[in-house]
């Protein structure tokens, strides 16, 4: 929106103190390794180290794997369920009853082996809608991984720039303190010669103390920034990290600008909201299918014999084929309320999607304004 309503595409921005200009390119693609635009080998090594060691990114990768396996598991009901059963059993018949006719014995053994085959046709599409749910959840996990990647790299670059800025401030304050100390030493010598009064020396000492008081907070912030960089990289605070300075970072000259029309295809947060919306829609189909009649088909072919050797002989085979039609009638309105909850969740996901789009457009617009105003302050 800013690029469309402001200056035309390819507009040259303001120049920095070195005379270099920044050029904005609306609609240009942002490189995956965008931090390379700063031309800092140390920054590139740090980010590559963070991408390989960050526990947050590692957790997002495993979350994607969990979602993918859940999707594959959800596809199982589309196929028949087959299991095998073998049951050797020893029986004793009471003498009250006649002996078992097969062998005229009160003690006998029965070996039973059979297949259990069950299949439930997906008549109303409930299984397929369930697969849609898990597919959308997998997509959401993938986009969350992308968002984690972008957040990690973005926060790390910001932390490095803040660290370098604090280093520059500390160097400036230390230089200022050194200058104030030299002035104070010179003033003391002049006072000894009778050229300055005590009030002048006191004023100079107060100015030096005031400048010295600026140093500890900056050093504390620098240490905290170092710890933040280590945490983002997956390291401990006492692990060594590069010592960044502003001189080691180059201001990017060409800045790609995303247009609002392309945000939906680029921003992971919008894609996550879209995938969640899709999953909520599919949940409605699952809830509706649960309220409709279902057919269960079963088959149990097998053998039953007095010994294992007889099991495959003619005459010892057995089988059962059955079909079951089930229609839910009353479950305390549970299925009805589950469907209504699914529809409400769909409306909630739709509102969250719209909110994500609005927030993304605002974020991009604010970032563009910040880039332009920050560049203007350098003139």
Automatic annotation (TrEMBL):
Select a single GO molecular function from the record's annotations and give it.
Answer: efflux transmembrane transporter activity
State the membrane topology: Lipid-anchor
Q: Classify the main location.
A: membrane
Tell me which UniProt keywords the record has, alphabetically: Lipoprotein, Membrane, Palmitate, Transmembrane, Transmembrane beta strand
User: What's a Pfam family in this record?
Assistant: OEP
Which cellular component appears as one GO term in the record? plasma membrane
Q: Which InterPro entries does the record associate with it?
A: MdtP/NodT-like, OMP_efflux
State if Lipoprotein is listed as a keyword. yes
Gene3D superfamilies reported in the protein's UniProt record: Outer membrane efflux proteins (OEP)
Q: Where in the cell is it found?
A: Cell membrane
Q: Which domain of life is it from?
A: Bacteria
Q: In which family does this protein belong, per the annotation?
A: Belongs to the outer membrane factor (OMF) (TC 1.B.17) family.
Name assigned to this protein: Efflux transporter outer membrane subunit
Q: Which organism is it from?
A: Nguyenibacter vanlangensis
